[in-house]
Amino acid sequence: MASHERVSFKTGDLSFYSLIQSYSNSLDFGSLDKVLTQMKFERRLFLEKNFILMFKAYGKAHLPDKAVDLFHRMGDEFQCRQTVKSLNSVLNVIIQEGFFNRALDFYSDVIASKGLSIQPNGLTFNLIIKALCKLGSVDHAVEVFRGMPLRNCAPDNYTYSTLMDGLCKEDRIDEAISLLDEMQIEGTFPNHVAFNVLINALCKKGDLGRASKLVDNMFLKGCVPNEVTYNALVHGLCLKGKLDKAVSLLNRMVLNKCMPNDVTYGTLIDGFVKKGRAADGASVLTSMEERGHHGNEYMYSSLISGLFKEGKPEHAMRLWKEMVEKGCKPNTVVYSTLIDGLCREGKLEEAREMLFEMKNKGYLPNAFTYSSLMKGFFSTGDSHKAILVWKEMADNNCSHNEVCYSILINGLCKDGKLTEALMVWKQMLSRGIKLDVVAYSSMIHGFCNANLVDQGLKLFHQMLYQEPQSQPDVITYNILLNALCMQNRISRAIDLLNMMLDQGCDPDFITCDIFLKTLREKVNPPQDGREFLDELVVRLVKRQKTIGASKIIEVMLHKFLLPKASTWAIVVQQLYKPKKIRLAINECWSRLYH
């Protein structure tokens, strides 16, 4: 007879089981250990369901290692045979903690153990497929999925949905959609989760046509779209800039008795703000409140920020007051947004007062709050107060991040304090803080303003060997191009422009203006720059930089410097190939004449 069969149920066992349930619910592990010790001493009968209660308790307490340890003690110490139920319970605890590799190792050890002989079931495979997908091992997950029938396990909706989600995250949407067809052929009708995984992926990719077809398919299968479906569609429409259609969809959602939630409204409001239509976003908030929903602090933060950026400070302040009056408590994010907006408007004293109020109400300013104030003081020429804000950050144990350092360096350089800026730069390097493109560009600007262009160029060449976030952008190039042209080093500026194109950085309107001014004022005889820009357009088109070419064409039309007929022919041929590029040139004409 096996060791786990030596004991049988006794009077009083139920009392121990009740204690296990009670202590598991209250996460009292000390008492649980005492109960287990007493039960073992009295040779009580241990049931698997008692251990599953304890596994779940360890899961709630974020103690996966304790669950694994208890699983291994079940048979040897407590004579309770582990089954697939225990395996799945512990696997779930480990996966919920995000320890996916640990879960796979645990599974392999248990299945390989000859003493346990546990056969995995459908839930086991679902958990393993989930772990593999989370690790990005989608091909391995597909192998496990294909092997399920060999273990007499049929995939269910959860299996398919998990694998679809993994494929979509790897940008393998077509394969995920083919699984939808396969599951229906196999007799598993897709539920909301399966459809929503695919619709969400298509919307994020901007493929709204296929997403809408899947919605139609949902209806045909008797699966009515829910708020998750609509949220995905609203998000997709916002990404494509089709905000009015998103509003129509929201209204249709209400008509279909599917109530929008905070995610729906938040997505739509954020979409309007990003498109420079914060006032329309505020109307969505009003509509939301009329339907019985209350705006949260994140919606208000987004709208207030947008209104300030669009030059509507009165509307932003009105919204702030409404927020407070309606009982929505501002948090650090909202306060920081308001302080940033006031700084943008040059209302530094009001921003200071808001910071004081923020602290009094127990909200700690963060790096963004202080950065906004520093930038505000620098923009008004008060570098002394900006530096005091920097010191205040340190006094309040708020870490200086790369953004703060970049603002400080930029402000000091613009104020002509190159020595101080260099000291800050060296401090950044000594503390191992990553230098971003703003910090580099600011320092280069400081050198150029001090007529130390060669030092600026030296720093620029250092940038080229840095990480992507530190690579020179069009602003960096324009700073150096302008400095070189001012020193009449035109051939060197041309070399730098060539490098700019080789690095895949498109020139902009400022780049054009720098060279047009140079050709007009520093070349003998003066040139109008038509040939220069014409050649630039051709070079960009040859590099398939059609958007950049269209911007140069726009500059030429503004300056009445008409491109050559041959250039027009090349441009039109290239620009009218893809639909998106044709829209770009149409927008260019629209900006010219409206």
From TrEMBL:
GO terms for molecular function: mRNA binding. PROSITE patterns: PPR (PS51375). SUPFAM superfamilies: HCP-like. PPR repeats lie at residues 121-155, 156-190, 191-225, 226-260, 261-295, 296-330, 331-365, 366-400, 401-435, 436-470, 473-507. Keywords: Repeat. It holds the Pfam family PPR_2. InterPro entries: PPR_rpt (IPR002885), TPR-like_helical_dom_sf (IPR011990). Belongs to the PPR family. P subfamily. NCBIfam families: PPR. This is Pentacotripeptide-repeat region of PRORP domain-containing protein. It comes from Lupinus angustifolius.
